[in-house]
Design goal:
Elements (H helix, E strand, L loop, with lengths): L1 E7 L4 E10 L2 E11 L6 H19 L3 E5 L7 H20 L3 E5 L1 H9 L6 H12 L9 H17 L6
Parallel strand pairs: 1-4, 4-5
Antiparallel strand pairs: 1-2, 2-3
Amino acid sequence: MQRVLGIDPGIASTGWGIVDAEGGRLRAYCFGTISTNVDAPMDQRILDITESVKQVIEEYSPGCLSIEDIFFLRNVSSAIPIAKVIGSLQYLASLQQISYACYTPLQIKLAVTGMGKATKKQVEHMISFMLGLQEGRAMNHASDALAAAVCHIHTCEGTRGLY
């Protein structure tokens, strides 16, 4: 069995989701969202996210981390804190001796929906379908994190037809 922890990094909210793959089947094991205090200093918020992900790793023992990489067109200032979160999580994975991979939003959307320009709603719908979740149960950041995990599994397996 392969267990992947997907991460949708953000400063205000970071989504996480664990997907198990075994015998060509995918299953959402658990998922959630880490929220930070908007009034806390940036370094504290990054630390809070990192510590929360560390707790998830210690509790569920994933074999690897799949992180949605940063992509931006205009707002560089909002991308910098997210890049810091990604770096912190990569460092955490290294300390925990867990492999990690980063995938662009385009790669994740393509792996999950077959369309690189899929909407968030389309990704959420496909994740619900692929993982047998009730529609809307894993929303927004958690759904994106599960999609990052599925992308990694599909990339490692070399196919998109595991469900």
